[in-house]
TrEMBL record:
Statement: the UniProt record of this protein carries the keyword Oxidoreductase: no
Entry keywords, A to Z: Membrane, Transmembrane, Transmembrane helix
Record protein name field: Metallophosphoesterase
Source lineage: Bacteria, Pseudomonadati, Campylobacterota, Epsilonproteobacteria, Campylobacterales
GO molecular function: hydrolase activity
Organism: Helicobacter aurati
Transmembrane segments: 6-25, 37-57, 63-96, 108-126
Length: 378
């Protein structure tokens, strides 16, 4: 993120915290001490967000990480409730007048704060649950035989996603007895020396015909080549603008580097996305599965022959209603979707992710492991 964008982001976050204070704290009590307490809470949350974003790529103690990162989820939930309260206040004011609004104000704020606390608690509870296994049948043209693919995405190995949690994900995935396992990016979200034990747990994944991995945007912020080397060493095949032709299954598995590699800040040309290179060795009469971390890769397709795109990145919004902001950047949010590019019809399946980004919180989205049943189109 450029310096100018960081300044704009900081200003927006400050303004929204001021909005939260005026809507949720300023009128909750006439006692000055309560108002000062409200200011302290809002300022503390703002400082926690700044601290977390500043030191996110370092190695924080798990307790500090949890406290700091959770400030983002608390802010987002509080802002949306404050927005609803603001709209409700204006509705009462315009419909019944200032006296009625003043009479109802305390009750409205009590309900608002009870809702915020409930949603915060619920978001921690949902995220703490084990990933759910989501199965999907997908029809593929020219497929020789049925293929089962276990799809993992957005695990975000790091401070809180340690080797114990990875071991549980691996165990759950292995029970699916998949023909192929694919990892569609943001698997590692820390420097490899901090997370080597957790990364090595991925080496216990088992499939009949291989495990294939593509970079997500988060791997670019660390020692990317070391991460790729570690994954290759434990039996996972990285596909950085490359393809694997599985002749016994009659299918091409292609992988493209993440779109974030196009940014000028990342000067390694070998990590830039290149569709042409990723697909150039494919067998023409085999269906092609393209692994791309970001779903919006479909916006860059021209005349390439793609049957199915497998992606992650969106986290299903992670904390509602962030879903709608994600859809400003990505064409789809989750699940199986049909799309057309240059008169070609194709499908894309988006995983909501087996892990989480930042705060260990999810609201109206679930951590998931996806099992895709590919069947021939008869």
């Amino acid at each position: 993120m450029s310096i100018s964008m960081r300044i704009v982001f900081f200003i927006v976050i400050v303004v929204l915290h001021i909005f939260i204070y005026f809507i949720l704290f300023k009128n909750i009590s006439t006692n000055p001490a309560m108002k000062h307490l409200g200011k302290c809470i809002v300022i503390a949350n703002l400082l926690c967000i700044i601290f977390f974003l500043r030191f996110y790529h370092g190695q924080l103690h798990p307790i500090i990480y949890t406290l700091m990162s959770s400030s983002i989820g608390i802010f987002w939930i509080s802002f949306n409730i404050a927005l609803i309260v603001c709209i409700l206040n204006w509705g009462v004011y315009l419909g019944f007048g200032a006296i009625v609004l003043q009479h109802w104000q305390t009750a409205i704020l009590v309900v608002a704060w009870a809702t915020i606390l409930l949603l915060i608690g619920l978001s921690f509870y949902i995220n703490a649950k084990a990933p759910v296994t989501v199965e999907q049948t997908i029809t593929i043209n020219n497929l020789k035989q049925p293929i089962n693919i276990a799809h993992l995405s957005d695990i975000h190995i790091g401070t809180l996603m340690n080797e114990k949690k990875i071991a549980a994900i691996v165990k759950q995935t292995n029970k699916l007895h998949a023909d192929i396992i694919v990892l569609t990016g943001d698997i590692v979200d820390s420097y490899s020396n901090f997370s080597i034990k957790a990364i090595e747990e991925l080496g216990k994944l088992k499939s009949k015909y291989g495990i294939y991995y593509v970079l997500g945007n988060h791997e670019y912020y660390y020692d990317t080549h070391t991460i790729l080397h570690l994954l290759k060493r434990i039996g996972i095949t990285p596909l950085v603008n490359q393809s694997m032709i599985l002749r016994n299954l009659g299918i091409n598995i292609s992988g493209i580097a993440d779109l974030v590699g196009e940014r000028t800040v990342f000067k390694d040309n070998s990590l830039k996305p290149n569709l042409t290179k990723a697909l150039e060795s494919n067998q023409a009469n085999f269906p092609t599965i393209l692994l791309s971390h970001q779903p919006k890769i479909i916006n860059f397709l021209t005349n390439e022959k793609i049957d199915l795109v497998l992606s992650g990145h969106t986290h299903g919004g992670q904390i509602f209603p962030f879903n709608f902001i994600v859809l400003l950047d990505q064409p789809f949010l989750s699940g199986l979707n049909q799309f057309t590019y240059h008169d070609n019809n194709a499908q894309i399946y988006i995983s909501e992710g087996a892990g989480w980004w930042g705060m260990p919180m999810r609201l109206f989205s679930r951590r998931q492991i996806n099992l895709l049943h590919l069947i021939p189109n008869k």
